[in-house]
Amino acid sequence: MIKYEELQAKIKKLEGPIFVFGASGFIGANIIKDVFTVRDDCYAITHDANSAWRLKLLNLPSKNIVHCDITSSASVKNIFAAYKPKTIFNLAAYGAYSKQSNVQLIYETNVNGTVNILDCCEGVNAYIHAGSSSEYGTNSAAPLEHGQLEPNSHYSASKVSASYIIQYYARYKNIPALNLRLYSVYGAWEEPDRLMPVMIEKARAGSYPNLVEKEISRDFVYITDTVEAFVDAALNVSPTIRGNSYNICTGQKTTLEQLVDLVRSEFNIAAEPVWGGMQNRKWDLKDWYGNPANTNKDLGWKATTPLREGLQETYKWHEGVDYSGVILAAFKNPRLNAKISAIIACYKDNQAIPVMYERLVKMFNETKLRYEIIFVNDCSPDDSEEVIAQIAAKDNNVIGITHSRNFGSQSAFLSGMEVSTGDAVVLMDGDLQDPPEIIPSFYTKWLEGWDVVYGKRVKREMSFFMNLIYKGFYRIFRKLSYIKIPVDAGDFSMIDKKVVRELINLPETEIFLRGLRAWVGFKQIGVDYVRPERMFGKSTNNWRKNIGWAKKAIFSFSFVPLEMLSYLGFVLTGVSFLAMIAQIFARIMYPNVPHGITTVIVLILFFGGIQLLAVSILGEYLSKIFEESKARPKFIRRSVIYKGKLMNTSAEIENFKKDNQVVK
Predict the structure, then answer these.
(1) Which of 169, 188, 69 has the alpha carbon at shortest distance from 127?
(2) In whole angstroms, how far apart are CA 327 and each of 27, 45, 322, 332, 636?
(3) Residue pair 633/411 in contact by the 8 Å Cβ criterion
(4) Distance CA 330, CA 322 (A)
(5) Is residue 221 pLDDT above 50, yes or no?
(6) Cα–Cα distance for residue pair 223/286, rounded to 1 Å
(7) More confident residue, 640 or 280
(8) Rounded to whole angstroms, what are the CA distances from 188 to 197, 203, 254, 303, 645?
(9) Three-state SS letters, 57-69
(10) What 3-state DSSP class applies to 176?
(11) How confident is the model over 268-293, as a mean pLDDT?
């Protein structure tokens, strides 16, 4: 029997503020949803982009969603210091699904992450940890909590380690902590590719999913009962039981054959199930169910929702949320579950960098996006490197790169793009003239399917004359270019990962990114914004640099100067021929007309100037050919700061690049 009112009454008794780590996952999302219905001092702590779709669809206020990387002790300490939580529900885990196969990340999340959180739990009222029945491994037939643990995978071994860590912190550091070993939890918001959601969806269509052997068993626990188990554990943890592990299960063994028979009868399915259509998975066990005796006795918890009723409730939920159109669409949409990499090219921006970081983090949190921020210090003469290092030390989502010399902003962007791990990158100048607050508008367009979303400068906060110059150049450049390049568009843009790959793979060393961005194609659209003045210091641009930018753009993406020389050659040849005829005619008709030296001088200067102009234009193109023929690297990294670790040797930097580069 589902008793929502009783559950809500219990939730009100919890001491707050409440942290729910792993709140974007299945069980975490249900806990944060149920807690938030009766109180608002609860915070969804998340770092999992793959499950962020739940939080988006639940529409939690942005202030109640906090991004934290639990593998970073600094990141965990920061949020504890900011919010001072009293009740902790830790459901953050990695490796439970076959698609989560990164062994290093399994232990970093499940073991190191647990340690980092427990280190901050002095003074909390309760720490309740989501363990797993996988901790029992092959000892899976109704084991007691003190029974033999026989882990049979990296995931189960990591969860066993976490249970012993909890026991240590509880008994020797007096942390009021408990470990709940969860069995097969099902219900609303479960991963759509798991057994129960697939079973329900097939039942709605009058059929069954592919099935393994009928003897395979599970111990199914409805989600509301599971949420209640966490609440009961938090309310009943005491010095006599802290550090213990408890089985969250019904104690009933349900084979897949029994489950299918129940689904068949409850939802009137006429079709016959076909067994063995799916190969048994390596973790499938014929006897996998629990014993909740100690849980009933110590925590006062018991699963009260029969499987029949739980299935009916889940079926109703699937029907009520437009499952295919909303839930399944969100789950399958890689852009909705995205991680965004912000790449900031920094030169003489030491004052702006901390402000940029704060505004970016605020924006990402409000947009409910997982983020990565890559600051590329292009050998700035100020203390930008030290400023970036301080930020990277406290936030594992920040990567700091320092170049061996000043290679220019275009190379800085490519340097960041090469090691970015996001589903899309955002290119920004470090002087805050590219406002982070525009990124949500980029993201909205990107979600609609656009591969490149660029900022279109409808206005610049500068003099009328300079505005006129910039606008004039972009329009002239567009007329001259052999590709369609957007006007008033700088480097500020969001670029999808597949486009990033193409840009990185381009071999040329003379880089003009906004031109290359247009050259590679894909679906592109602009977003209007006002480009503000530089917040700190003076602009590093001047007339000489602006002319250099103009030359780089024109000679990289236009053959018009060469064509003009050809046309000019034809015109002058024709004029010369006509002048020669006129001269002959004049000599015949007017033999006594004096001939002055002025005409000769003017002609020599004119044709000499034309020849010098032609040679200089040819020289610009030849210099580009010469530069490309050298095939020098576009940049050289002197050091990299990643997850608080400084890498400054060639081997370290090269390994970092191999591990993180977007081009695999």
Answers:
(1) 169
(2) 16, 21, 7, 9, 45
(3) no
(4) 11
(5) yes
(6) 23
(7) 640
(8) 9, 16, 20, 17, 41
(9) HHCCCHHHEEECC
(10) coil
(11) 75
Residue 433, amino acid? Q
pLDDT surpasses 50 at 487 = yes
The string of DSSP codes covering 299-363 is H-------HHHHHHHHHHHHHHTTIIIIIIHHHH-TTTT-EEEEEEEESS-TTHHHHHHHHHHHH
DSSP state of 523: S
In the block, tokens 């406002």 appear at 435
Place of tokens 């700088």: 490
pTM: 0.70
Residue type, 537: G
Contact at 8 Å (CB) between 439 and 426? yes
Amino acid at residue number 527 = V
Residue 17 tokens read as 């503020």
Q: Which helix (H) or strand (E) holds 418?
A: helix 409-419
- Structure tokens, 459: 């206005």
Residue pair 247/139 in contact (Cβ under 8 Å)? The answer is: no
The set of residues, in sequence order, having a beta carbon less than 8 Å from that of 239 and lying 6+ positions away, is 174, 176
Give the separation between CA 609 and CA 626, rounded to whole angstroms. Answer: 25
Residues 6+ apart with CB under 8 A from 618: 562, 565
| Sheet (strand 126-132) strand order | 65-67, 42-46, 18-21, 87-90, 126-132, 177-182, 245-248
Q: Is the dihedral of CA 229, 234, 238, 244 positive or negative?
A: positive
String of b and e for 596-620 (b: at least 16 CB within 10 Å)?
eeeeeeeeeeeeeeeeeebeeeeee
For CA atoms 5, 9, 10, 12, the dihedral sign is: positive
Task: Read off the pLDDT of residues 608-661 as tens digits, 9 standing for 90 and up.
Answer: 666 666 666 666 666 666 566 666 677 788 888 887 778 776 677 666 666 665
What letters, b where the CB count within 10 A reaches 16 and e where it falls short, cover 290-314?
A: bbbebbeebbebebebebeebbebb
> What is the percentage of the chain residues whose pLDDT exceeds 70?
74
Q: What is the DSSP string of 33-99?
A: HHHHTT-S-EEEEE--GGGHHHHHHHT--GGGEEE--TT-HHHHHHHHHHH--SEEEE-----SSTT
User: Would you say 73 and 79 are in contact if contact means Cβ atoms under 8 Å apart?
Assistant: no
The whole-angstrom separation of Cα 328 and Cα 341 is 26
Residue 202 buriedness (CB in 10 A; 0-12 / 13-18 / 19+): middle
Residue 26 C-alpha from the chain's centroid: 20
Side chain identity at residue 283, one-letter code: W
Taking the C-alpha atoms of residue 116 and residue 336, their distance in angstroms, rounded to an integer, is: 29
Local structure of 416: helix, strand or coil: helix
CA distance 93 to 26: 11
Query: What single letter denotes the amino acid at residue 564?
Result: M
Single out the residue of 183, 196, 140, 217 nearest to residue 303, CA to CA. Answer: 183
pLDDT at 1 over 60: no
